[in-house]
Amino acid sequence: MMPHVPFTDALVERLARARSVAVLTGAGISAESGIATFRDPGGIWERFRPEELANVRAFLRNPELVQAWYAHRRALVAEAEPNAGHLALAELETLIPDFTLITQNVDDLHRRAGSRNVVELHGNLTRSSCIDCRRPAAEADLRMLASGEPARCPDCGGYLRPDVVWFGEMLPVEALETAHEAARRADVFLSIGTSAVVYPAAEIPRLAREQGAYVAEVNVAPSAIAGDVDEVALGPAGTVLPRLAAAVRARR
């Protein structure tokens, strides 16, 4: 598969005619908003090991440390802004009758950019809940961290955990099923800013192609699935996607 800069006319035409489009986004699109990725140099796991912070055992062993680290991540995400790539996807949603945005990111930037039909495979960092009774936590419930004590549920006293999928946990069944259904019915599938090495998310673009979708990747470098897609558009999402959305708008 020869990469294109930035995309082919065939992709524009297929998007302009599409009734159903599904998109999968990964850490690459958020990196353009200044949010560190997990695997790159300077990323999230360079300072901490996953087993120290991102699993249930680590949380129960030291809830205050884990809560404080996620509070720091929430503060960084709150300072970040949706970039041109996020905004372009929100615009594409207004042009296509059936549009599903599937994301591996937990930063809520797609919703903040205006995307409405968002499927969060790995949860949402901006939400928290009780690890015992599952009660959603309010912002005020997390403020006790400032006193040096772990944040607890006001109803049952259980520790409050971020609404993200930790290592060793299954993806939310409903979210994964919704993503699979969107992939199966898609006329066009876009894989954006993802390394395509984390399963089961990495299987979703392949599922779409097996069902007949035109699958295109938008990435700064070809990913693990680049050889299995119809087109690779090289470049940052914040550069490629606005041009793609404008081209599709002009054709519809």
Q: Give the low-pLDDT segments.
A: none
CATH homologous superfamily designation of the largest domain: TPP-binding domain
Shape from CA axes? elongated
Oligomer: single chain
Number of helices: 10
Adjacency order of strands in the biggest sheet: 1-9-8-7-2-3-4
Q: What portion of the residues fall into strands of 2 or more residues? A: 15-25%
Annotated CATH architecture of the largest domain: 3-Layer(aba) Sandwich
Structural category: alpha/beta
- Terminal CA distance reads 28 Å
Task: Characterise this structure.
- The protein has 252 residues and is of the alpha/beta class.
- The protein is built from ten helices and nine strands.
- The chain folds into two domains: 1-35 and 82-122 and 170-252, Rossmann fold (3-Layer(aba) Sandwich); 37-79 and 126-164, SIR2/SIRT2 'Small Domain', CATH 3.30.1600.
- Helix content is 37%, strand content 18%.
- Strand 3, helix 7 (109-113) and strand 4 form a beta-alpha-beta unit.
- The longest helix is centred in the N-terminal third of the chain and has 17 residues, at 63-79.
List keywords for this structure.
SIR2/SIRT2 'Small Domain'; two-stranded antiparallel sheet; single chain; 10 helices; 252 residues; seven-stranded parallel β-sheet; Rossmann fold; 2 domains; alpha/beta; 37% helix
Task: Describe the protein's topology.
Elements lengths: L2 E2 L4 H9 L2 E6 L1 H5 L18 H4 L2 H6 L1 H17 L4 H12 L2 E6 L5 H5 L4 E3 L2 E8 L29 E5 L8 H13 L2 E5 L10 H8 L3 E6 L11 E4 L2 H15 L1
Helix pairs in contact: 1-10, 6-10, 8-9
